UniProtKB/TrEMBL annotation:
<feature type="domain" description="Nucleoside phosphorylase">
    <location>
        <begin position="31"/>
        <end position="283"/>
    </location>
</feature>
<dbReference type="Pfam" id="PF01048">
    <property type="entry name" value="PNP_UDP_1"/>
</dbReference>
<dbReference type="InterPro" id="IPR000845">
    <property type="entry name" value="Nucleoside_phosphorylase_d"/>
</dbReference>
<dbReference type="InterPro" id="IPR035994">
    <property type="entry name" value="Nucleoside_phosphorylase_sf"/>
</dbReference>
<protein>
    <recommendedName>
        <fullName>Uridine phosphorylase</fullName>
        <ecNumber>2.4.2.3</ecNumber>
    </recommendedName>
</protein>
Length: 295
């Protein structure tokens, strides 16, 4: 028997639910769609054949139901890798920690995470409203540096990135984590391209946007766009994927990130029908899950 987790380590609400997500272990399915926007949760669950559970707290809205015989949870993470740390640690706790004994279960449950998010392209030839699956998440934030994670990273890519970017003088130490290939196979088709997705900790300066503040790195997006690894380029920039890949893999879960490209940062274009593109990606995701081995 391992030692039990203390009450400031594993924080439970008075009803026994996990601290931020406000969920009980039975509330979640093993297939979990994550979205950034809390409003997008019902845009996913409106396609479900039945909804068994709806709960929320802060920006974390969760619906669980059935689509074509598959039990699916959809949860909003809000924006950013700091929220990913909370959501993914708490979802793992719901699956793999016994809340009565406060001990880690000996038999682990593996969850499958599918991010359905939005993103900006860094390459002029990747148009707005297209779909992109992230084969690797490249973290420019620092979340994964707080975990013992050497064994799950794509070290070859990390080394190539560090040498190419040479951004340690800005305290940027990129980490690279790959998608789960088996899970990705479910979503692979000629409708969705593959790319390397950079994840950063902000929307403006950390994505090369200049409103009134001067950037520390003037050619930030162009430099990212110039990196290639084999056939793959850094294609897009958003705020969650690398952290999702990292925290999911560290827990032994599977993750894939699907992006609707709403902006093209290289051409300056922004989608005029972003809502439609996101809806099509939601439908694509659900149809692929329906036809898959996921339960
Ligand atoms: C920024 O507007 C947000 O949109 C993107 C970014 O990753 C960030 O969370 O994704 P979502 O639309 O999934 O939130």
């Amino acid at each position: 028997m391992g030692s039990s987790l203390g009450s400031s380590e594993l924080i439970l609400n008075p009803d026994g639910s996990i601290y931020h997500l406000n969920l009980l272990p039975d509330d979640i399915a093993t297939t979990i769609i994550t979205v950034g926007d809390p409003e997008r949760v019902r845009e996913v669950s409106k396609y479900f054949d039945s909804i068994e559970m709806k709960k929320s707290k802060r920006e974390f809205v969760t619906h669980t139901g059935y689509y074509s015989g598959k039990r699916i949870s959809v949860i909003s993470t809000g924006i950013g890798t700091d929220n990913i740390d909370i959501v993914f640690n708490e979802l793992d706790a719901l699956a793999n920690i016994d809340f009565q004994s406060r001990q880690i279960k000996s038999q682990k449950k593996q969850l499958s995470f599918i991010r359905v998010g939005t993103s900006g392209s860094l390459q002029p030839d990747i148009p707005v409203d297209s779909f992109l699956m992230s084969s690797t998440g490249i973290g420019l934030d620092n979340l994964l540096h707080f975990y013992d994670c050497g064994h799950i990273k794509n070290k070859e890519m990390e080394q190539a990135l560090a040498a190419y970017l040479n951004w340690s003088k800005y305290n940027i130490h990129p980490y690279a984590v790959d998608f789960d290939k088996d899970l990705a196979d479910i979503f692979t088709s000629n409708r969705i391209r593959l790319g390397l997705t950079a994840t950063n900790s902000g929307f403006y300066g950390p994505q090369g946007r200049v409103l009134r503040l001067n950037p520390a790195i003037a050619d930030f997006n162009e430099k990212l766009a110039g990196f290639s690894f084999g056939d793959l380029r850094i294609t897009n920039l958003e705020m969650e994927t690398a952290a999702i890949y990292g925290i999911a893999k560290l827990h032994g879960h599977r993750a894939v990130s699907l992006n609707a490209i709403l902006a093209n940062r290289a051409t300056g274009e922004f989608s005029k029908q972003g809502h439609k593109a996101v809806h099509e990606l939601i439908q694509y995701t659900l149809e692929r899950i329906a036809k898959s081995h996921l339960i």
